[in-house]
């Protein structure tokens, strides 16, 4: 197998992982905003996410002379570590599934900041002790504190932006020129159903609504009519609750993967080699795929959040946006793999620096989705403060990198 040993190589893997893990959520958000059912998108995503694990296992896991390699570790003696890897995949899959719904309620930028910060505050602390404190505590702990501040700022940004949007919509409803008023949830649901299942195409949108400028009340209404998850009239606490649940799930997957590859709890028999990062990632990805497939197939027939029902037949026939969803799965799969490779070399606590992915996601959120356009000065100040705190936290976390002893 290919063995990554240098600290520089580990940081390089983390940076590439950061770019990939920050981009795939933007793709899934784009599809939801264009009306594609999240169940359809996530089923596509899971297929290529698993494919990435196969590619990594049979390339990096097999090349070179270092042993053991991927194929030689298929032994029942490693099952305790395999179960840790599969648990890591389970909680990550639940977290990714939850964020797909949270993005609609809270927005891409704030969702990623809160979940990533929770991952660092909880997960990095656990990894620090699991890794036998190979990371510099005097640097690591202040970095964790910065992430905790970023969580609070992220919640404040969401609350402020939600208030701004409410003000925009209230002003439109009171406008005497707006005779029709705001479209009701039931009416928008009817239009959405016609658009999706009338086969008019993912890009067609709602023909009766003109293209609106980012950040305006008209834009918010147009978005609500097109998107698959309707958010008007729902409590902001629902979105935050989903986001916090996702953050807890994300906090556990990296420590569980750490246990799978390093066996700090001594669950393996004497003489049994620890799982390589590639073997652990393979089982991790299989668990991700199985859980996601079971839940999303169930959501096709028993949808949540008042989404329309679907079926396997309709899913297989829905090719609108499928290529983007498949691409998102590949990006996430390779991003996770590179994160684990860097963590095995430099410590999983330092590898949690890839949780800087909200910096990338925020860029896509502003560029593609017009998030925070025409918001209040208060929202802008909170947004800038949140991102600056996040940048400081990531820099400090990377500076704490250590080197794992063989």
Automatic annotation (TrEMBL):
Transmembrane segments: 6-30, 42-61, 81-98, 105-127, 139-159, 236-260, 280-302, 323-342, 348-368, 380-400
Alphabetically ordered keywords of this record: ATP-binding, Membrane, Nucleotide-binding, Transmembrane, Transmembrane helix, Transport
Domain of life where this protein originates: Eukaryota
Recorded GO CC terms: membrane
InterPro entries noted in UniProt: UPS_plant, Ureide_permease
GO terms, molecular function: allantoin:proton symporter activity; ATP binding; uracil:monoatomic cation symporter activity
Subcellular location: Membrane
Pfam families: Ureide_permease
UniProt topology in membrane: Multi-pass membrane protein
Chief place where the protein resides: membrane
Family named by the database record: Belongs to the plant ureide permease (TC 2.A.7.19) family.
Protein name: Ureide permease 1-like
Organism of this sequence: Lithospermum erythrorhizon
């Amino acid at each position: 197998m290919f063995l990554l040993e240098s600290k520089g190589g580990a940081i390089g893997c983390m940076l590439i992982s950061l770019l990939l893990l920050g981009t795939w959520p933007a793709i899934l958000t784009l599809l939801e905003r264009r009306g594609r059912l999240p169940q359809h998108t996530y089923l596509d995503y899971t297929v290529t996410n698993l494919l990435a694990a196969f590619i990594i296992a049979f390339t990096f896991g097999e090349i070179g002379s270092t042993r053991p390699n991927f194929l030689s570790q298929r032994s029942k003696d490693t099952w305790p570590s395999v179960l840790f890897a599969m648990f890591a995949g389970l909680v990550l899959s639940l977290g990714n599934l939850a964020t797909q719904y949270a993005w609609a309620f809270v927005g891409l930028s704030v969702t990623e900041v809160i979940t990533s910060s929770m991952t660092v505050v909880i997960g990095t602390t656990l990894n620090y002790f699991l890794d036998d404190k190979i990371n510099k505590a005097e640097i690591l702990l202040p970095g964790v504190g910065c992430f905790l501040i970023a969580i609070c700022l992220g919640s404040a940004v969401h609350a402020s932006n939600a208030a701004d949007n409410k003000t925009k919509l209230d002003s439109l409803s009171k406008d005497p020129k707006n005779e029709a008023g705001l479209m009701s949830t039931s009416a928008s649901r009817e239009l959405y159903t016609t658009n999706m299942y009338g086969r008019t195409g993912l890009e067609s949108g709602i023909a009766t609504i003109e293209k609106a400028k980012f950040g305006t009340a008209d834009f918010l209404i147009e978005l609500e009519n097109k998107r698959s998850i309707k958010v008007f009239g729902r409590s902001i606490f629902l979105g935050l609750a989903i986001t916090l649940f996702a953050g807890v799930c994300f906090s556990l997957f990296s420590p569980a993967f750490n246990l799978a590859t390093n066996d700090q709890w001594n669950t393996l028999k004497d003489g049994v080699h620890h799982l390589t990062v590639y073997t652990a990632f393979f089982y991790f990805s299989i668990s991700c795929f199985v859980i996601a497939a079971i839940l999303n197939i169930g959501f096709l027939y028993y949808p949540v959040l008042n989404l329309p029902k679907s079926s396997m037949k309709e899913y297989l026939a829905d090719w609108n946006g499928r290529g983007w969803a498949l691409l998102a799965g590949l990006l996430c799969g390779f991003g996770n793999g590179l994160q684990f490779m860097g963590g095995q070399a430099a410590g999983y606590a330092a590898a949690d620096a890839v949780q800087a992915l909200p910096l990338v996601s925020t860029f896509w959120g502003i560029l593609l989705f017009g998030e925070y356009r025409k918001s209040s000065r208060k929202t802008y100040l909170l947004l800038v403060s949140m991102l600056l705190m996040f940048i400081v936290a990531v820099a400090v976390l990377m500076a704490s990198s250590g080197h794992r002893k063989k």
